[in-house]
Design goal:
single chain, 165 residues, alpha+beta, 5-stranded antiparallel β-sheet, 4 helices, 5 strands
Length: 165
C-alpha cells in the first residue's frame, strides 16, 4: 500500500509540475523566420532577445487568450489544492472511505487544462499579430496537453482509491 501511495503522490506532483511549466514557460507558440531570431510566445509575452506583452491582450479582441490564461491558472491552483486536500484526507478519512473530494478537485483541474488547450488550439490566430501567425506549437503547449491526461488519470485514481491501514 505504501508503494501505491508513493506512486500516486509522485504522479500528482509530476502533473502539478507539468501544469506550472506549461503555464509559466514562454513556448506556447514558436515563430522561426529565416534570418531572424526565434520568437517564443506564451500566454502573456512574446520574446526573442527581449520580451514584450502580447499585443491587445487586455482588450475584448483577446477574450480567448484571457480565457486560456484564466483556465490554466485555475488548473494549476486546483491541482495544488487537490494535493493538499489529499494529504488532509489521508489523515482524516475513516478506513475504507474513498478520496471523492480530492478526485472532484483533480478532475476539475483536468477539465480546466482541456478547456485552455482547446481554446488555444481553436483560436490561436485571433490573438496573434499577423507577423506571428505563421509558426508552430511550442513545448509549453505540448506540456499542457500532456498534463491533461495526467491530471485526468490522477483524478480517476483518487476515485478508485480507498483508505487502508
Amino acid at each position: 500500500m505504501l508503494i501505491i501511495l508513493a506512486f500516486i503522490i509522485l504522479f500528482h506532483v509530476a502533473a502539478t509540475i507539468l501544469l506550472f511549466v506549461a503555464t509559466i514557460n514562454n513556448a506556447w507558440w514558436v515563430v522561426s523566420q529565416a534570418g531572424r531570431d526565434v520568437i517564443y510566445t506564451d500566454l502573456w509575452y512574446s520574446c526573442n532577445t527581449t520580451c514584450y506583452p502580447v499585443e491587445n491582450s487586455h482588450s475584448a479582441d483577446a477574450a480567448y487568450l484571457q480565457a486560456v490564461q484564466a483556465t490554466m491558472i485555475l488548473a494549476s491552483i486546483l491541482c495544488c489544492v487537490s494535493f493538499f486536500v489529499f494529504i488532509l484526507q489521508l489523515f482524516r478519512l475513516q478506513q475504507g472511505e474513498r478520496f471523492i473530494f480530492t478526485a472532484i478537485i483533480q478532475l476539475l483541474s483536468s477539465l480546466c487544462v482541456m478547456i485552455a488547450a482547446s481554446i488555444y488550439t481553436a483560436q490561436k490566430n485571433s490573438f496573434h499579430v499577423p507577423s506571428l501567425q505563421y509558426g508552430a506549437y511550442g513545448s509549453s503547449y505540448v506540456l499542457a496537453w500532456i498534463s491533461f491526461p495526467m491530471t485526468l488519470l490522477s483524478g480517476l485514481m483518487y476515485l478508485v482509491l480507498r483508505k487502508r491501514k
